[in-house]
Design a protein that fits this description.
mainly beta; Jelly Rolls; 14% helix; 3-stranded antiparallel beta sheet; single chain; 40% strand
């Protein structure tokens, strides 16, 4: 199961297309690899609020990065980017869909809000994969005392032929 999960992560990263900060240099010809053992070791050493020591890999039309949460996040929405989540450890609830109330544009196409109204809830645990399409509000909810570690693959929105 662990090998299938690692292969799935590498497959998704290889196929996905996603957003990265434009100030970060493009790395279109750099091979990216982080072993499951190294990921687990890094996460086990984290203190509350710290991020794993894996850098975001920016391909220009996609990127991925590791996230570690110890508390709930704020609601957000990306107009031009789909997020694919690959859960490494812990559990969280992803609130998705509905309407982003009190939305403000933080930068072009990126919105933060006060709350999601009318959204659905999906509990996610280690081994799960989920995706929030471009334009869909979403928010991570972490129960007190719990942690949640996941890979986000950010995929650029493209019109299908």
């Amino acid at each position: 199961m662990k090998n299938i999960f690692v292969l799935c992560v590498l497959f998704c990263v290889g196929l996905a297309v996603a957003q990265g900060p434009r100030s970060q240099p493009l790395e279109v010809n750099k091979f990216g690899y982080w072993s499951g053992g190294a990921i687990k070791a890094s996460v086990m050493q984290l203190k509350p609020g710290e991020r794993p020591a894996f850098s975001r890999l920016n391909r220009g039309d996609h990127n991925f990065n590791m996230n570690h949460r110890v508390k709930s996040g704020n609601p957000e929405m990306h107009s031009d980017w789909t997020d694919i989540y690959i859960v490494q450890q812990g559990e969280a609830t992803l609130v998705h869909g509905g309407k982003l109330e009190g939305a403000t544009e933080r930068r072009p196409g990126e919105f933060g809000g006060e709350k999601i109204v009318g959204g659905s809830r999906q509990k996610l645990v280690a081994g799960d994969i989920a995706s929030s399409p471009a334009g869909m509000p979403h928010q991570w909810v972490i129960e007190d005392g719990k942690t949640f570690t996941y890979v986000t693959v950010k995929v650029a929105k493209h019109d299908m032929p």
